[in-house]
Amino acid sequence: MENIMFFVVTVIAYSSVMSCFILNNFSWTRFSKNTALIALLVLPININGNVFTVAGNAIAEKNIYSTLSIYQKAGNNAYSIIGIIQNAGQNASTLIGLIGSQEAGQNAITVFGLAGYQQAGQDAATGIGLAGYQQAGQYAITVFGLAGYQQAGQNAITVFGLAGYQQAGQYAATGIGLAGYQQAGQDAAISAGLAGYQKAGQSAVATVAVAFYQRVGEKTRAFGAFSRLSKD
Q1: What is the rounded radius of gyration, in angstroms, for the C-alpha atoms of the chain?
Q2: SS (H, E, C) the chain
């Protein structure tokens, strides 16, 4: 019943948008043909609990597969080349696009593009692009780009780029770039670049970098450069 509602609403919405572009050359015949094409593209085909659609929005008992979707909800996995909102019991994955929200019981992954909000029971990852908010039970990872907020049960990692806020149960690490705030149960580290504030249970590391302020236990250091501040 929910997918019928999604189908009807999506067809009406897309047809309304399409009609705005053909106002100067409008005809009911043309409108009907375009609406029929839209209906075909957004139709969610359910095969044994798995939903397949080109550009539709749907809920799936098991998995959902689409090329372009605004909304996906799946009991297991949600896969989309271009997507906006994904909610999955296991994995939520988008190859290219704008992700407003990804929520997954296991992994939330955006390969290229913008991931506004990622929440995952295991790993939240953005390949190349912008990760606004990442919260993960294990790893929060941004490979190349901007990570606004990263919170992870184990490790929060930004490889290349800007990490605004990193909080991790074990390691908070930025490879090359700028780290605003790093807090880690074990080590807070930046390999090359600039770190604003580092707080760690075991050590704060600025390899080829400068950290404005570092705190490890009761030890503190200002403007630490090319060095490691250890608890022991």
Answers
A1: 22
A2: CHHHHHHHHHHHHHHHHHHHHCHHHCCHHHHHHHHHHHHHHHCCEEECCEEEECCCCEEECCCEEEEEEEEEEECCEEEEEEEEEEEECCEEEEEEEEECEEEECCEEEEEEEEEEEEEECCEEEEEEEEEEEEEECCEEEEEEEEEEEEEECCEEEEEEEEEEEEEECCEEEEEEEEEEEEEECCEEEEEEEEEEEEEECCEEEEEEEEEEEEEECCEEEEEEEEEEEECC
In angstroms, the CA 160 to CA 177 distance is: 6
> Rounded to whole angstroms, how far apart are CA atoms 38 and 16?
11
> Which one, of 132, 125, 166, lies nearest residue 146 by Cα?
132
Which is nearest to 54 in space by CA: 81, 14, 93? 81
Question: How far apart are the C-alpha atoms of 38 and 78, rounded to whole Å?
Answer: 22
Beta-carbon contacts of residue 225 (< 8 Å; ≥ 6 apart): 206, 209, 210, 211
Which own/partner contact pairs does 192-195 have at CB distance under 8 Å and 24+ positions apart?
none
pLDDT tens string 171-222: 999 999 999 999 999 999 999 999 999 999 999 999 999 999 999 999 999 9
Q: pTM here?
A: 0.89
pLDDT at residue number 58: 96
Phi and psi torsions of 5, nearest 5°? -65, -45
